[in-house]
From TrEMBL:
Protein name: 4-hydroxy-tetrahydrodipicolinate reductase
Subunit details: Homotetramer.
Pathway in which the depicted protein is active: Amino-acid biosynthesis; L-lysine biosynthesis via DAP pathway; (S)-tetrahydrodipicolinate from L-aspartate: step 4/4
UniProt xrefs under InterPro entries: DapB_C, DapB_N, DapB_N_CS, DHDPR_bac, NAD(P)-bd_dom_sf
Residues annotated as catalytic: H138 (proton donor/acceptor), K142 (proton donor)
BP term (GO), one: lysine biosynthetic process via diaminopimelate
Length: 250
């Protein structure tokens, strides 16, 4: 008997009752079904078992344990959680050796393009004369800073300049900071109200400034991207993918 090709894609949401989990559940399209969802006390490995793909918007402390469960199951994982460290990222990479993993600090198409532009601009504007600074603003409940998107933009600038990001990243300024180190990439994180997500990358020289600005007006822009990534990831071979892959941009 032929396989039932009309079976809906079973999507699980880790962080189901959070801001992003609710935004995703609200717009799941035809051809998909919400198979389950969990909060912080939930059984992630159990959720993975009953789904074709898991979308994960939770907290940085969950990245490592969730990556372990994904590696064991081989199930596709769409990871939007930010705030993880290098150890978490190593666990994500390990999971991606066993399962298709789509990871993005920001699932909006505008940010995919902004990140690409950031790299091109950084390659064109000499680091010695154009100072790169990234300003982000988010709602008052955001827990990590700088945002994952701000860090991704910073990495793109470092890539464009062929520098190691950790070597040029400038951390928070306070007190007697001394002059700005040449070639550094600075960050400022603002928090307030219900702002969904704003990012601005500025290249400033002695005589001019060039900037890219992205503003998300509604979480549905991230939710749509994450759902698109989930549909794309189902049935893929293991690997660590980004939204550029999902959108066919490489
Ligand atoms: N990549 C992107 O495009 C975007 C990424 N994000 C990122 O997604 C994450 C979630 O954001 P948001 O939805 O606003 O956050 P919320 O605080 O609104 O929701 C977080 C959800 O995760 C659950 N949770 C909290 N701590 C843990 C834990 N230790 N283990 C497992 N689950 C946990 C919560 O459970 P409970 O319901 O039990 O409290 C809740 O359901 C953040 O890292 C944020 O930066 C956000 C927007 C877009
Ligand atoms: O926590 C948020 O809200 C957001 N987090 C992501 C990030 O840290 O970059 C993406 C978006 O800016 C909203």
């Amino acid at each position: 008997m032929a396989a039932d090709t009309a079976a809906p894609l079973r999507i699980g949401i880790a962080g189901r009752d959070g801001r992003m989990g609710r935004a995703i559940a609200a717009i799941l399209p035809e051809g998909t079904v919400l198979a389950g969802g969990i909060g912080r006390e939930g059984d992630f490995a159990g959720l993975v078992e009953i789904c074709d793909v898991v979308i994960d918007f939770t907290h940085a402390t969950a990245i490592g344990p969730h990556a372990g469960a994904i590696a064991l199951s081989g199930r596709p994982w769409v990871l939007g959680t930010t705030g993880g460290d290098a150890v978490d990222q190593a666990r994500v990479a390990e999971a991606a050796a066993h399962a298709p993993v789509v990871q993005a600090a920001n699932f909006s198409p505008g940010v995919v393009l902004a990140t690409h532009l950031a790299k091109l601009m950084a390659a064109a504007l000499p680091a010695g004369s154009y100072d790169a600074e990234i300003v982000e603003m988010h709602h008052r409940l955001k827990r990590d800073a700088p945002s994952g998107t701000a860090l991704a933009l910073g990495r793109a600038v470092a890539d464009g300049r062929e520098m190691a990001f950790d070597a040029v990243r400038l951390r928070a300024r306070e007190g007697e900071t001394g002059p700005r180190p040449p070639g550094g990439i600075g960050f400022a994180a603002l928090r307030g109200g219900a702002i969904v997500g704003e990012h601005e990358l500025r290249f400033t020289s002695d005589t001019e400034q060039l900037a890219i600005v992205h503003r998300a007006f509604d979480r549905s822009v991230f939710a749509q991207g994450a759902i698109r990534a989930a549909i794309w990831a189902a049935g893929r071979t293991p690997g660590l993918y980004g939204m550029g892959d999902v959108l066919g941009l490489g």
